[in-house]
Amino acid sequence: MAPTENSPLLSNNNNNGDQSLPMHRPTSYPSRFSPHAPPGSPNLVSSMWWLFTSSWLNILLAFVPLGFIAEFLHWPAIWRFSLNFLAIVPLAKLLGDATEQSSLKLGQTLGGLLNATFGNAVELIVGVVALLQGQLRIVQTSLIGSILSNILLVLGMSFVAGGLFKSENTFQQTAAQASGSVMTLGVVTIAIPAAYQGSIRMNTLFSQGFDALKSLDDSDSTLDGLLFISRGASMILLVIYVLYLVFQLKTHAFLYEAEEDQDEEEEVAMMTPVAAIIGLLVVTVITSFNADYLVSAIDETANEYHIPKAFIGTILLPIVGNAAEHVTSVWMASKAKMEIAIGVSVGSSIQIAVGLIPALVLIGWAVGQPLTLYFQSFETVVLVASVLLVNTLIQDGRSNYIEGAMLCSLYLVAALSFWVEPDM
């Protein structure tokens, strides 16, 4: 079975026993999540029919045209925001399904490429749209929020769900530690520009006093330094991400090899490769429009209803992009498949921290938007603390419900804090 966007980080279930599964979102299981394959080979029509009817979540596709109508008829901002917010939930699910089906037939290498490209497609689309609109804070908060949502809320709920049915669940320890180290590298690199900015502010404070701090924040030299660090670090992180994919898919694939399980049902291709790619392209284009309308309504909605933009970016938007994965992760954890649950959270977070954030910094460079790796100090502290907690909990290769409760509690504390964080 080829790796897909939904392939687990740490696998112990596989039909052939000799295939490696990359660390991203979990592989689908047709017996639980989709109808049985139609008789004969799928064609374009049957493939597209399956894509749009395979999940009850697709009922929410009714909000897609409503989001377009709200934008074109200039409905109030809260309606434009809410309708496009709900529209992106099923679109995220469709992207995941189409990516998964593409990888089944196209092989491991191309499957890994599709995984890297579409694994966090909603986050990428929202980020690019906000970047082009100059909404740099929305870009940063939505990416930070996606990481926190995955490693705290998704993983925490998965640990709780697994602990309700089994006193203790186990997973492959070596691969978990390796992935945790890559995640740590990503967040530490993000913290370095904040340390640089803090260092300059302290030196200015001691040498010139409080009055100099305001002019320092507006100075071109400070921004130039942050851009230099951020763009250079982004290129380095992207190289690490490529090396990590090679490490995972090729040179050290044995770390992620699955143990043979004769009871596991073989996955059936429900779409042709051509239909899956067409589905990816169509859904991506539609999602880009809904994301554009959503982002354009954020400012007005936040001001009118007194909702902090930091809360919208870090809490609400990530919940939209990760809704389908949340359900899948908790379901798999309840079936004692903790490897898959960890693959959802840690794998997606690595892709964002080491792949997506650096890529958006470089895209901003190309389009003239000064996006940097300098996040607000509060956000950086929350992110680093979250990764440290996750690494502490997964290093023993075991999980239980109290560990999940700790992760969820930290996420709730972060959500409360972002509600009162002043907009910058």
UniProtKB/TrEMBL annotation:
List where the protein spans the membrane: 48-70, 108-131, 143-165, 226-247, 268-290, 310-333, 340-367, 373-394, 401-420
Residues in Sodium/calcium exchanger membrane region domain copies:
78-249, 276-419
What keywords does the record list, in alphabetical order?
Antiport, Calcium, Calcium transport, Ion transport, Membrane, Transmembrane, Transmembrane helix, Transport, Vacuole
How does the protein's chain sit in the membrane according to the entry? Multi-pass membrane protein
Q: Which InterPro entries match?
A: CaH_exchang, CAX-like, NaCa_Exmemb, NCX_ion-bd_dom_sf
Bias (Low complexity) occurs at 1-16
Q: What is its main location?
A: membrane
Tell me where in or outside the cell this protein is found. Answer: Endomembrane system; Vacuole membrane
Q: What Gene Ontology terms describe where this protein resides (cellular component)?
A: endomembrane system; fungal-type vacuole membrane
Q: Which GO terms describe its biological process?
A: intracellular calcium ion homeostasis
Annotated stretches, region: Disordered:
1-35
**What family classification does the UniProt entry report for this protein?**
Belongs to the Ca(2+):cation antiporter (CaCA) (TC 2.A.19) family.
UniProt name for this protein: Vacuolar calcium ion transporter
